[in-house]
Amino acid sequence: MQEAILKAEKLSKYFYEPSRFQVLHEVSLSIQKGEFVSIMGKSGCGKSTLLYLLSTLDTDYEGTIDIHGVKVTGLPEKNLARFRNEHIGFVFQFHFLLPEFTALQNVMLPALKLGRLDTPAIEAHAMEKLRQMEMHEHAHKLSGKLSGGQQQRVAIARALINDPDIIMADEPTGNLDSTNAAIISNILQELARQDNTIIIVTHDRDFANRTDRIIEMVDGRLQEPAVHP
Ligand SMILES: Nc1ncnc2c1ncn2[C@@H]1O[C@H](COP(=O)(O)OP(=O)(O)OP(=O)(O)O)[C@@H](O)[C@H]1O
């Protein structure tokens, strides 16, 4: 039997503005180690909200989440921030790189945040991740000066720097032209082939078809038997 790296049980989430509204309805799912999973569904069905819960960025919900054998639900924010930085790599539609820092510095940042002091080793590791994204030649350029597709590749390198157990990506190709979207989806597929666990939210059916499993969401509920037999 395969090992579940992430287990979510009965996640419910409410928003209160402009009025009380249940966006997630007892969502349960299990992600196996090495799985490449996509979450699809109409705009507003709750995909990003679910990913934010799974990524521990949003802690205001009912239900429980276990990641890597740790019950993250209820952990104090300080512990959670460290856990997140160590175990989860994020890629967003808008990459949130620091434009006045170089590509290399952006990639190094999550490792420095862990308090590792061996800066040359971190730099070498960051360069390796940039090389993996074929971005090493741009390492010393300010990230704000790179193209959207290049910035997204730097964002993926940054997500990989602490060798996370899970990579989560919220519409990683959503903001890119078709050529750059193809580059990013190929990179993610290659990372999946290398046995990384990846969860993506996407509107792109072709991209989703390349993942191991598509989870369909409708109005805050999952449409498939999300737990593997
Ligand atoms: N902070 C918030 N406060 C109130 N309502 C919110 C908030 N964030 C999201 N919502 C609402 O919750 C619902 C789900 O939003 P969510 O962003 O998760 O959907 P989505 O499926 O990811 O949509 P899209 O595909 O357009 O990104 C939407 O109706 C949205 O308007």
UniProtKB/TrEMBL annotation:
Keywords: ATP-binding, Lipoprotein, Nucleotide-binding, Translocase, Transport. The keyword Cell membrane does not apply. The keyword Nucleotide-binding applies. SMART domains: AAA (SM00382). Residues 6-229 form the ABC transporter domain. GO terms for molecular function: ATP binding; ATP hydrolysis activity; transmembrane transporter activity. GO terms for cellular component: membrane protein complex. PROSITE patterns: ABC_TRANSPORTER_1 (PS00211), ABC_TRANSPORTER_2 (PS50893). Belongs to the ABC transporter superfamily. Macrolide exporter (TC 3.A.1.122) family. This is Lipoprotein-releasing system ATP-binding protein.
